[in-house]
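ok new one. same drill as before - structure tokens go in, u give me an amino acid for every spot. 350 of them this time. try not to just spam alanines like last time pls lmao
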């Protein structure tokens, strides 16, 4: 039976932790006013940030928020004493970084340096949001260049083994991967090869395959290949070629080894480390990516006489069968062509 008593509960579908959004095009301007921590109380700022983070999940709101200058306003909140404000400010910025117009604004306003200052924040979720924002920004050349110009690469290399959160470690590895595509030399000069090599023995396969992928990226220049041979990278990589690892790990280990094996020193050291006996079993792997990279690695390694002699007996028969392989990838004949090249290389005689 209905009564005249007035309930103190909030109306249904109303979240008291979020600011009430204005209608339509007035939503962003109102939130912008409420984010001004010099004029509004802490609760108002927190609620505005909560509402803004929800609003930015809609891509349509990103452009309007950028035109209103919200990324710069969020940058001003990064050093706020309140944990929730810093958490939501960094979260909103990583929503901006997920879209091209938002990334452009972050780069234009030079917010990369300000966000990276939160790498050492005492709150884990703030650190994760900051790393996610920088990783998304660095996916394109302009962002990767700004990360390098801000000299963040040495800091990221130093933070990588010290960080305890696995999710943050994977994000750092992704950021470094993005910078390696722009210029691998800053990471090489910062000693990243040694750090990546240590992570090849990590318990998480997600971290291991990213570390192997980054070794491939950092060994693109000759200096990286020479450093990999000098710092003992080959044996840990070769150990990843066994069936106990995920396809992603094996695939990226093959790619890294293939990059290093381009040099004569890399080939010879690889053969001495026993890579040849681990390659033929990979020709039966069910993952087409592993199969393709294994064939390419065999082709590169077989340029060494000792490897060619061993692979002539253990791999040629299977490679002949793979000449008729038709894959499921965009280039359906990639495996077939690579197998043909591998057979020609192994069976070549002077």
């Amino acid at each position: 039976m209905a009564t005249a008593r007035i309930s103190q509960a909030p109306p249904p579908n109303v979240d008291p932790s979020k600011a009430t959004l204005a209608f339509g095009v007035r939503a962003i301007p109102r939130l912008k006013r409420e984010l001004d921590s010099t004029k509004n109380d802490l609760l108002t700022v927190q609620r505005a940030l909560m509402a803004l983070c929800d609003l930015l999940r809609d891509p349509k709101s990103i452009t309007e928020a950028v035109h209103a200058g919200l990324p710069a306003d969020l940058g001003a909140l990064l050093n706020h004493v309140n944990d929730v404000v810093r958490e939501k400010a960094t979260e909103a910025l990583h929503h901006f970084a997920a879209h091209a117009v938002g990334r452009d604004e972050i780069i234009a306003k030079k917010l990369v340096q300000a966000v990276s200052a939160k790498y050492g924040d005492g709150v884990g979720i703030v650190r994760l949001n900051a790393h996610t924002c920088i990783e998304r920004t660095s996916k394109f050349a302009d962002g990767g260049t700004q990360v390098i110009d801000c000299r963040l690469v040495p800091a990221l290399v130093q933070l990588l083994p010290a960080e305890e959160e696995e999710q943050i470690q994977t994000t750092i590895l992704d950021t470094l991967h993005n910078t390696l595509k722009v210029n691998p030399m800053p990471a090489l000069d910062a000693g990243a090869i040694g750090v990546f090599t240590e992570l090849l023995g990590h318990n998480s396969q997600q971290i291991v395959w990213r570390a192997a992928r980054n070794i491939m990226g950092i060994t693109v220049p000759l200096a990286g290949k020479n450093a990999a041979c000098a710092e003992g990278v080959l044996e840990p990589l070769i150990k990843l070629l066994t069936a106990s690892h995920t396809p992603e790990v094996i695939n990226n280990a093959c790619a890294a080894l293939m990059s290093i094996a381009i040099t004569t020193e890399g080939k010879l050291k690889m053969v001495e480390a026993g890579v040849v006996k681990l390659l033929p079993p990979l020709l039966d792997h069910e993952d087409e990516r592993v199969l393709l990279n294994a064939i390419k690695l065999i082709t590169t390694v077989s340029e060494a006489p000792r490897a060619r002699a061993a692979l002539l007996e253990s791999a040629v028969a299977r490679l002949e069968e793979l000449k008729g392989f038709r894959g499921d990838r965009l280039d359906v004949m990639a495996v077939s062509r690579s197998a043909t090249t591998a057979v020609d290389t192994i069976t070549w005689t002077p």
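The first helix runs from residue 27 to 34. and btw Residues 25-190 form a domain with the Leucine-rich Repeat Variant fold (CATH 1.25.10.10).
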